[in-house]
Design goal:
The chain has ten helices and 16 strands. The chain is of the alpha/beta class. Helix 2 runs antiparallel to helix 5.
């Protein structure tokens, strides 16, 4: 199953808000439909957002080239922190002088490349880990960086899958990932589908998993990697990096080259999305804080380069903690 693709002249995507209770597909026939799906996290995950940006650009220029500019601008800004969304839009639109069909062809190329590059980086990440940890490798991860965050394979969970295929994986410790529970809802669902042994822990217990020696490595994805090696990822990643450094275990970031943003000098220049505070004080329809409680709902955090043992992409391995830069 592909998370997102082009079918019969429009975009079809898994509605990630319905999981794990149901696998529901969305038919997105307008750019406005796509923007809504992105903002409410029905489509999420950096590589999937890159694909969505490219396919959305194709949809925009096909529907009305004269009005495409405003639609595309709104699409680029639908989620400001992840660089892949704007990257996908811009890449597809470079073919606009050749007409709408060329834009669509480029967008479809982005879809297929996502699958290939994530399989490649997954294998490279597994090789890197096996060179530093005994089998079987127990892994801790945060948020969701699996097939749901890409087209069909995964980045951080792609590495996990590659280890599993080599009979080199032990157990995966999954942070629940508050406030929207992408770990317990999505990552645990994917691991169950793959038959991989896993344990969900609350976010506050993540560092203790590492301190107790239960995991041999942390493997996460990224929403943006700055030119100095700083990593922007789901809120809660930074504490895991601190705990990994204290425990003396590798902190590995798995992300495609499209996530590397050389135009941004450091993570300090990245706009961190602040989402609706209602996500914090409600779980589903249940209120979990007094009415009127103030909130601060950062969607992402910054992990400094000196805490990142390695970044693995489809093309290379970078070691920011040793001073290597993308």
């Amino acid at each position: 199953m592909r998370t997102i693709e082009w079918r019969d002249g429009h975009i079809v995507a898994v509605d990630q808000t319905a999981l794990p209770d149901a696998v529901r597909m969305l038919d997105l026939r307008t750019v406005e439909d796509l923007i809504d799906a992105i903002k409410r996290l029905a489509i999420r995950g950096a590589p999937a957002l890159g694909v969505a940006g490219a396919l959305g650009a194709a949809l925009a220029v096909r529907d009305d080239p004269d009005l495409a500019g405003d639609r595309v601008a709104a699409l680029r800004q639908a989620r400001p922190t992840a660089v892949n969304l704007a990257w996908g839009v811009d890449r597809a639109l470079r073919r606009l002088p050749d007409g709408p069909d060329a834009v669509l062809a480029e967008a479809l190329a982005v879809v297929e490349e996502d699958v290939r590059c994530n399989r490649t980086l997954a294998g490279r990440g597994a090789d890197w880990l096996l060179g530093r940890a005994a089998r079987p490798v127990n892994v801790q991860t945060h948020c969701n960086a699996g097939g749901l965050a890409c087209v069909e394979w995964g980045t951080a969970l792609g590495v996990v899958r590659a280890l599993h295929e080599r009979d080199a994986l032990g157990r995966v410790y999954v942070d629940e990932t508050r406030p929207l529970l992408q770990g317990s809802r999505l990552t645990a669902w994917e691991l169950a589908q793959l038959g991989i042994a896993h344990t969900v822990v609350v976010d506050g217990a993540g560092p203790s998993v590492l301190a107790r020696g239960l995991a041999d490595a942390v493997v996460v994805g990224a929403d943006r990697i700055a030119a100095n090696g700083d990593v922007i990822n789901k809120i809660g990643t930074y504490p895991l990096a601190l705990a990994a450094a204290r425990a003396g275990i590798p902190f590995l970031v798995a992300a495609p080259e499209s996530t590397v943003d050389l135009a941004t000098p450091s993570g300090a220049e990245v706009e961190i999305e602040v989402r609706d505070g209602a996500e914090i004080v409600h779980i589903g329809q249940t209120t979990i804080a007094p009415a009127g409680t103030e909130t601060l709902n950062f969607a992402f955090d910054l992990t400094p380069a000196d805490l990142v043992t390695a970044i693995v992409t489809e093309a290379r391995v970078i070691h920011p903690a040793k001073g290597e830069r993308p």
